[in-house]
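For the sake of transparency, this paper describes our internal protein records without simplification. An entry from our holdings is shown next, in its original layout:
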Amino acid sequence: MNRALVILILLFGVLSAAEIRDNELYLEINIAVDNQIIISGEDIFIQEQDPFFAKEYSGSIRITLPTSTNDSRYGIIQRVVDESVRGYIEGIRSSKFVWEEGKLALKNEYAIYLDQSFRSYEEAQQLAMMMGYPESHIQQIPIVNASLRVDSDSGDQEYFESPIRIYAEDGIQFGNITYKGEFIVKAQNGKLVFNHLLPLETYIAGVVPNEIGNSSPAEALKAQAVAARSHAVSLLGYNRHAKDGYDLCSTTHCQVYKGEHLQNEAIQEAVHETAGEILYIDDKVADATYHSSCGGKTDSSVAIWNGTPLSHLSGSTCLDAARNIDLSREPQAIKWINTSVSTQGMTSWERAGMNWQRSISKAQLTKNLGLTYLTSVQIMRRGASGRILSIKFYGDRTIELSGEYRIRQAFGGLPSSLFYIQGISSRSKHSLGNKITLKGRGSGHGVGMCQVGALRRARADEDYKSILQNYYPQTTIITDWMKQE
């Protein structure tokens, strides 16, 4: 085997993220990916993977990746073998989640690389094509135990081998947010990856208040906890961040997680009282995606994102007043958007999603679309929730945008695509004036649980199981979903 690649593999060795400790699932939640990580706190303990070298810090700490150690090469995966049948083979170990026999399992596997390694992706791509390997087999192989430099505000300077573990029982400050427990910092793709390693239930407690607020009714908090836990477990099955060095991110791409921020006793109780509960359908976890405000009806996942139809994400009525209205038809969608609905008891962010108005100049819309000039527009299709799913723009060329998110972005980042253009009341092609005014309702993609609807139902004394059943029909709640080691 090529000596350089052997060194890389020996150094890289392990890409594992999640862990199972005493039958409890621990996840690596990414907090930041940057050139430097600055944290502060008292009694911060930093340790290399080899526990013989460790040091305690207090105050502010800056972790950097010296340029001289920031090296990486590309390799081509020859095959991947399960840990149980590996034997003695040089390879890079990684962990992945699989849904197996109705339960989530954490599998370790080893990627076995070809002898050659390359300084550029293009070099690796050329050989992969010649040998018939798919492009997905080309992977960057960073030197994981590159030196990480740690500088304290007292002037101390130390070098640790990546990855390092950080322990802070009393918490650390990163940005304006407090995080407690165990952390991992690793060098990957020329950057520092800063992750919070914590139990799934602790993670959920950090998600719930940042997704639905910490002063929400108890049953809404419970519904959010079960939905967030189900969504997290579902995302693990996709291994979407496996190559990034963590299990889940802390943004809306996965779920918003901010550690101790906004947590209170009500949040802790909601998570504790639903501990381990996930939504289950067809012998696997139900992907319990959710959004801020549907605007009246939720939509189907297949309409919004295409893919395989899912019976529990086929759309449901949220507001009774919208039940008998066909929001996929233009006149009825417009009439519904202009219909007054009660906002009694709602917080300001809830009310903001019920009705909104935006404007954009034709010049800006033209620029957003990448056109030289724009003359007219035509709404082609709406979903069951009334969200526009397809729209055509006519100018120096014709553009058809499909997908609610792309449509929202084209108009400058709208809360939802449940809107109409003032002056346009049909599916015909219409000319546009210099100023375009949009009136809409709802916020977010419109699939799964509507948080505003969940809050309204909870205030009406509906329990969390009933709330979840409305937005995720045909699902059941289970707690025995993780395969034990």
